[in-house]
Amino acid sequence: MTSVAATTSSEPPGLHAAASRDVGSGSPRQRLQKLLAVPGYDPSRVNDLLLLRPDTDGQTAAEPKEESSNAHVVFFHGDIQNFEEEMALQPEGAQWLSWSLEQVALTLGRRFPDQHVWVVRASRMYLHKFSCYQNFVESNMFGAPEHSPYSPDIGVFHQLRALLSHGMERANLPNPLQPQGGADSIPPGFSLTLVGFSKGCVVLNQMVYELAGARADLQMSHFVSRVSDIYWLDGGHPGGSETWVTNKQVLKELASCGVSIHAHVTPYEVCDPMRAWVGREHAHFIKTLEEFGACPRKKLHFEDEPPSIENHFRVIQEF
């Protein structure tokens, strides 16, 4: 199904940019494109995507169009967050419409103006609330993960790479990433920034568990090497542990891989006495990485304000 065919009358005008190479200027809404049921590594593992193209307004004729740039940001959202039209139908979601996937894409576009911004919608929203990233990491119905090491057949890097490749083809981007292969399958200038918020951080955590195996796999290592930055934004999930990675061996791999690590948290997650392990795990994550020589950039936002869901969401604007 093409993005144009997926348009519905309930969606805001301009949500679906025409799938052509010359789309890259105009208002942010006009640069936002919805791509439904994009297949991943396994054709049955599909995710909906939002793509916000770079703003090329203001460039001179002598400047290369940013549309030909191959810098990409991928965002994994948290619970409650969904497409605007679906959140508006749910009493619990309607009050948080300002943090819809469309609004987050536009926010990230301001944060990363020269990059393609991809928002990956979780493949399942249990009770219209709990985001489940089953296509990336084994999860229960509430989205709590069961992390596992790298497999050469399937896993988080396989799914992400194929999803991006098929999404780039669907959007008619030039020089698309190939779904698999070695160095020749990676387009020139391709770079990747990964951002997880709240429940979406389970995808980043699975990447950490798979990192050693992926770097040793010649068919995957070149793709993994293009990841420049990883941002954890107030990670949280309904499981009773592993909100932050604490395994020293896999953190040693993360510390040595050269990726810039960013950890932004709020009191809502790390100062909740009812979930005290979250704060302890975050501290252990930072301390262990520093012991292995990494220099994670870390910040506690809104530390002088009472913990709140609103501030939990606001970290998306403030990081």
UniProtKB/TrEMBL annotation:
Identification of the protein by name: Chromosome 2 open reading frame 69
Species whose genome carries this gene: Sander lucioperca (Pike-perch)
Cited Pfam families: C2orf69 (PF10561)
Region (Disordered): 1-28
Gene this chain is encoded by: c8h2orf69
Biased composition (Polar residues): 1-11
Classification lineage: Eukaryota, Metazoa, Chordata, Craniata, Vertebrata
GO cellular component: mitochondrion
InterPro entries named in the record: C2orf69_mit
